[in-house]
Amino acid sequence: MTNHPTSPGPVPVLAPDQLKRVHAWWRAANYLSVGQIYLMDNPLLREPLLPEHIKPRLLGHWGTTPGLNFIYAHLNRAIMERDLDMMYIMGPGHGGPGPVAAAWLEGSYSETYPNVSQDAAGMKLLFHQFSFPGGIPSHVAPETPGSIHEGGELGYALSHAYGAAFDNPDLIVAAVVGDGEAETGPLAASWHSNKFINPARDGTVLPILHLNGYKIANPTILDRIDRDELDGLLRGYGHTPYYVEGEDPEQMHQDFARILDACLTEIREIKRRAREDGRTERPRWPMIVLRSPKGWTGPAEVDGQKVEGSWRSHQVPFSTARDNDAHRQVLEGWLRSYRPEELFNETGAPVEAIRTLHPEGTRRMSANPHANGGMLLRDLRMPDFRDYAVPVTEPGTGAVESTRVLGEMLRDVVTRNMDNFRVFAPDENNSNRLGSVLEATDRAWNARTVPEDDHLARDGRVMEILSEHTCQGWLEGYLLSGRHGFFSCYEGFVHIVDSMFNQHAKWLHTTNGIEWRRPVASLNYLLTSHVWRQDNNGFSHQDPGFIDHVINKKPEVIRVYLPPDANTLLSVADHCLRSRQYVNVIVAGKQPQLQFLDMPSAIVHCTKGIGVWDWASSDADVEADVVMGCAGDVPTMETLAAVDILRSHFPDLRIRVVNVVDLMRLQDDAENPHGLPHRDFDALFTADKPVIFAYHGYPWLIHRLTYRRTNHHNFHVRGYKEEGTTTTPFDMCVLNQIDRFNLAIDVIDRVPRLQGTSAHVREELKNKLVAHSEYIRVHGEDMPEIRNWQWSPNQPSEETTEEPV
Fold it and tell me: Which of 156, 311, 409, 657 is least surrounded by Cβ atoms within 10 Å, i.e. has the fewest?
């Protein structure tokens, strides 16, 4: 080992027998890992290796796996000696054979899957199922006991680890960061998570940066930079790095054991100082840098080309062992180099020396309940959302910031759940009008402060870092280890976590089919500062497309809500916070807006998810001429304003107003468990009348959701058309033709009996659009009749008294 000034001296830690056992466990895990990649029969090599023993398609990743197994063996030794509560997060999740092998050696795999028993038959099935049709994935997937981090997409190991550590005071999360993963932007930001951890009440993350030199084919940056540069980087992130380097197993075992013990002792002392001495300064947490060959213990060369220590070992070091006799001999020699006859007894079970080199029960990392968070999940202690209701004496009146009202409820959710609920936002909590939460808690912060700072504290529960990736990763780790959370974000920038959402939604869908996985709390998004009210920021901040992205996932795990006012937002948020196994997307504006439903009406409306607003309709007991559909706060207001215009000009026009809160209700129940049966949908939208639908996002999504409906050919949808700038609120609607005047014109153009008799009204509405455009360019704000409009169905729309431009 190359000594480092902060590293302890080279004193042996492992006694000879202990060293032998740790090395045997590592050999066994490596043997099982190679077997999973290559073999489908003859698991213990009790006969010569034949072509039919080898899988026809070889899939998996060997290169990182021996390093993962090495670390796992040493963590097990430390857990047993120190009685630690520890989780293992593997950033290189493609090294899936390793944790599967570890779980099998610990016995938890056979407990979870009794048919994969700890014997020769079970080993054969363990090998056969890996990356095989009808078997298990090659990554550290939900099927793997002990995993909350699949690692399919790299970059999230540390953020998931810290999320699991928050509010888990006795938990240590060992987080392996691959050197390829360390090049990703999300991982680079997540190193700063140590500025948000509170050693007095949170658990600990022990980062282990594993340098093995290569990605798929390219070298890794952190492996190739100078030691001083790497050391400066890691110290700059706030860590004290300890280094273990080499390839000789005996030396590496001793060095890693010594460094691991030093780190764990340092962690224990940091916690003691914080909890017993009240030391509040931010500590420099220890971390380990492990440098080992890629594909360690694998074939040195194949066909004259270097494999061990090379990029060639990244996936399957050689792929023709079934058909190539020479390669098959290499594979058999590789497997026999681990001496399986010393590792497994006559029945195929691990020998006692290996079987006893792991902790018992839930101290096993593959059986830690934090990695099956639903086992630990407690219901939130919820206030009654009705207590925050906004009075609505007349629908379509008033001016309330709906998300500010929600902030008051979230404040009390925090107050009642100070150990298992946190609010996450990328520097946007107050901007999104959730500032009331800071009456109950502060922002988490464990770095330097100055007197001018606002609401910063080591024990704060509002998690703000200007990294959507890190917020999402923290929240996922927090949820998957058994807690609850709420994530608010600007609508236009939530796309930054598109792929993270993908991974989480897939995880939820998969775990729905895994009986032993317990349901976890839903991941709840509030998307605000939305497309229709970007008065300050303009076109760069305008994008409602996250909804389209979410809709692509399995309907069993996603929900999208568009509450039109404060009371519906409260009802929806209460439902989402109580739910399990969903990703809930709530889209609601933060600007003052009209209120439509009192709380009893809001509850009924949200429970149904879609419904006719009788008070805004004029088709009672008669056949409707047109249906005006709407989803979203601004589209709802513009729809009602259009109805107001139409009723003032065409008092005998029969209009039905249908508002949608739960977007999934538009799909049919054969496609979506939350969808409406065709009969119910037709009862709302008719089977043959024109439907003018104003939607918050991209209009084609509504067509996609309703294409199987009887009356789909009569749907005309208005929504966002990528027209935007820094302009007035109403002008945004006009630019995208979702405004009241264009909606009213759409009705005139599509209701047959109006088309030949309403030319003058149509021309008047066109003139209104011209007048609007001229007015805002002189006055810089919308016309008074727009700014001051409220629902008044029995009176003509008030005209402005200001002079025309």
Answer: 311
